[in-house]
From TrEMBL:
Originating organism: Candidatus Intestinimonas pullistercoris
Domain of life: Bacteria
Protein name: Uncharacterized protein
Length: 104
């Protein structure tokens, strides 16, 4: 486990709380649990989730084991995403403009 990567404990999620954060280029949001599961989505910054191109999602049980699996999944995705150059401002702007127009 990577000790410098903080995620709240089980009680945080068991009390219907979400969480968001980042690790290098990786941005993530853990949605409020529903039906005992935490849906997590990832994207590359610099934009917030609303304006970013989603890069992946996964769902984990609201258990101590589920949080450990979630942590491992996020760390793996962060390592992969951070191994590549960030998107250029032009790429980010093109995607933002596309979704602002309602997609294509």
């Amino acid at each position: 486990m990577n000790d410098d990567f903080y995620l709240p404990g089980l009680s945080h999620f068991a009390n219907d709380n979400g969480w968001s954060g980042s690790r290098g280029l990786l941005c993530y949001e853990i949605e409020k649990p529903q039906e005992g599961r935490m849906r997590t989505v990832i994207w590359q910054g610099p934009f917030s989730r609303k304006y970013a191109q989603l890069e992946g999602e996964a769902s984990f049980k609201v258990t101590a084991e589920g949080i450990d699996a979630l942590r491992s999944w996020l760390l793996e995705r962060a390592e992969a995403m951070n191994a590549h150059p960030p998107r250029t401002p032009e790429e980010c702007r093109a995607y933002y403009e596309k979704i602002s127009r309602g997609g294509d």
